[in-house]
Amino acid sequence: MANFETYQEYQRIEDIEEDSPHGEEDLLVHVPEGLRDSWHHIKNLDNFFTRIYQFHQKNGFACMMLSEFFELFQLLFVVTFTTFLFNCVEYDILFANRAVNPTGPGQNPLDRNKVSLPDAILPSQQCTERIQENRWIIFLLIMAAIFWVYRMIKVFCNILRYWEIRQFYIKALKIRMDELCNFTWQEVQDRLISLQREQQMCIHKKELTELDIYHRILRFKNYMVAMVNKSLLPVQLQLPLLGNLVFLTQGLKYNFELILFWGPGSLFQNKWNLHPKYKRAGNRLELAQQLSRVILLMGVANLLLCPFILVWQVLYAFFSYTEVIRREPGSLGARRWSLYGRLYLRHFNELDHELHGRLGRGYKPTSKYMNSFTSPLLTVLAKNVAFFSGSVLAVLIALTVYDEDVLTVQHILTAITVLGVVITITRSFIPDEHMVWCPEQLLQCVLAHIHYMPDHWRNNANKSETRDEVAQLFQYKAVFILEELLSPIVTPFILIFLLRNKSLEIIDFFRNFTVEVVGVGDICSFAQMDIRRHGNPLWMSEGQTEASVYQQAENGKTELSLMHFTIKNPRWQPPQESSVFISHLKEKVHQDAQGGPPTQLLLSEAPLCSSLLSNESGNAPDNLLASVLAHPVLTASGLPGRDRCFVPPSTAASAAASVLSSLSISHSQLPNASRSHSHVLLPSIHPDSTMYRSDRTGIDSMSASDSRIKSTTMLSEFASAEMSLHAIYMHEVHQQSSLPHQRTSGQWQNPMPMRDLISNTGLQTHSGHTAVNLSSMPTPLRGWMEEEEEDAEEEEVLNRGSTPKQDSRSSC
Which portions of the chain have biased composition (kind: Polar residues) (predicted)? Predict the structure, then answer.
């Protein structure tokens, strides 16, 4: 993060839609009699809206309370069962190291009776005496009992709170519990906004917007996303021998939030207001020293609690993962999005379910990209270890089949189990020799879903450095478990030795990047998605932003977050600066679409492109994305198109622009009776489902029919696909702005690995369109058609390429 040389004062801004004029707090508002006492003038709207959101996402009152009770009994079970295993089991008898009954005078001591499970369990009196004699066990049980009582009180408080939320859904939102699963969050949110007009849940504003609700639910999470984006949190560690590592666990994140947001000595005086002393620059050094002392005390507290937390982490991991590892040893080699990756890839104002859905769609392409890297040395070792282990296991199995008494030999079952696990693990490191990967195309497919990619990844997808950085976002499950186990040990040292050194930067960050919005409170200024204040000129906001280097969000997060929020909330009215940026982007898309491939051509190539990218989903949005991503590869090959016509080379940006432009044409023609060719792309999309809409009237979200559910699901899928297209397009345009010397005729020229057609084709622009000189181009493949037919086709393509097409595009 850049050093702050100029310090601006904390700012208070009015609501962007001017719904909160001065003096509105004194207005008298009529409230229906039945709802006045319960939900008028809710004091803590942050908690209220958060509970409404969690109630919806966790499927209602019954599921939530059942989960709460099971978590409570799970804690009780782990403590009691562990105590029982350590104090109430006679392991000498269980392992047959001692006879169950004393031997008689005429018995051989080696003759032992068959051991049953009750024989190895001590009587309750003896078990109690063992527990009472161990003071450490008594101390740990007391600590666990105190924590369990605290959790039980919290569960009963949650029951009362969520019962109120249940009543709010039924009485205020008119949503029955048996219908809750049929409503999307956007529909619940629309009802909240409508309810605000009837009764003033927030008395400081007449109307709530979608952004107001997001700000209250994600107030602290937006701060965390911004601090990760500006590299303020010390989560990247430089260790000897291990190099650059990212370490962020649930425990460390919990400590960050405890110190900064809601713990004793935090920067916020309540859920929605930063403490006034942190809003002034005069005493920043004193406040930094005070924050440093709070961090030190928190680090020492973590150090003292380290043994207890570590024991709990080990026990919980043992009970949670042992059975899974025994049943599926390869599960440790599976990958998951790291906690750091979830913060790094998260948009401003992106709810949990939106993030999980987006990263879930990106899971398969990211796994394929990571699997495209293999270590030859590790492969050789894995093959040989698998051979030797398999040989020994085959002999043991053959002996067991021949005589089952072999199983009674000591440690035979253990050896068979261990060898099977070793074989399963080693085979996971042996690549499929029949698979062929294209890292660049796979990484582009990953970008389409995760939306963020550092500039130095481009054209370096096959390098191990890029793979290692992706692994920081997409880690092995075994690495996740190991980090969580080490978290109680590492967290105190990160707090004491790293976070304390950031105290002054943290104080400056919260003062410089906090604004007060009327009716919402103090929020992170980045969450406003203000292009003028936090835009980056290299991300299509040139001439629209006044931000200095350290005020700009990194990696285009402001611009991409604005596009994501606009697409996910089509009824939201953006402020003036944001509207100008969206209009500029729309004009740029239409301009670049003139040189892009026709949409119908992309649709016709969808099956081939899906196969090229190993896309197995088969749904329309994913197939469309595959066409956009793989089309440049097909055109770069120099092969004729599906109808045996030459297709000019294009880029992913021009292909994405062509599809986005067709969406605009489709929705502008939607009220007409006739349907254009672009309607084939999105037959069921409503104008409110895309950024390129001609009006803001929409389907009544209060209805609850089966057709509405299907339509809503389809709209959500295509909205995600539209955002993916915008991410691809904006990254391509960003590359053009960053590397202007690589632009030719206004288009990004990608390297063409199969055949260099740039030197063999004459690409000339005339009136904004591309004309193809086919007379100097060698025919890629002969024998597909007669020479006369081929000349006619070439002449037709030439005529089409020089004739402007405004309403629709033919496919060559």
Answer: 800-812
